[in-house]
Amino acid sequence: MALNTASVGSPEEHTGVHQARRRLELEREVRLAQLDALNEAEPTADGVLASQKNTVRRALIGIDKALARLNDGVYGT
C-alpha cells in the first residue's frame, strides 16, 4: 500500500506522515544496531554472518529509499 503524501494538508494527514517517518527512523536505528552487533561477532566459516550483514544492509537501503519517497512526497522535491 502506497502512502500518498503529495497533498499533506490536514492535521490527520500530517500526523500519518509523521508517524510513518518515525516508524522508519526507529526501524533504521534497530537495523544499524543489528549491523554493529554483527560487525562485532566472530566470522563464521559457513558465511552465515556475511549473509546476515547483507540482509541488514539491504533492509537499510529499503528504509532509506522509503524515507526519501516520504520526504519527496511531503516536500515535493
What features would you describe in this structure?
The chain is mostly helical and 77 residues long. It has helices at residues 11-40, 48-75. It is elongated, with a radius of gyration of 16 Å. The model has no long low-confidence stretch (mean pLDDT 85).
Structural class, by secondary structure, is: mainly alpha
Q: What is the string of helix and strand elements?
A: HH
- Fraction in beta strands: under 5%
> Can you count the helices?
2
What's the number of extended β-strand segments? 0
In angstroms, what separates the terminal alpha carbons? 22 Å
Uncertain parts: none
**Overall geometry:** elongated
How confident is the prediction overall: mean pLDDT? 85
Compute the gyration radius: what is it? 16 Å
Helix content: over 70%
Let me know the largest β-sheet. none
Key phrases:
mainly alpha, 77 residues, elongated
Quick structural summary:
With 77 residues, the chain is mainly alpha-helical.
SSE topology sketch:
Layout: H1 11-40, H2 48-75
Helix pairs in contact: 1-2
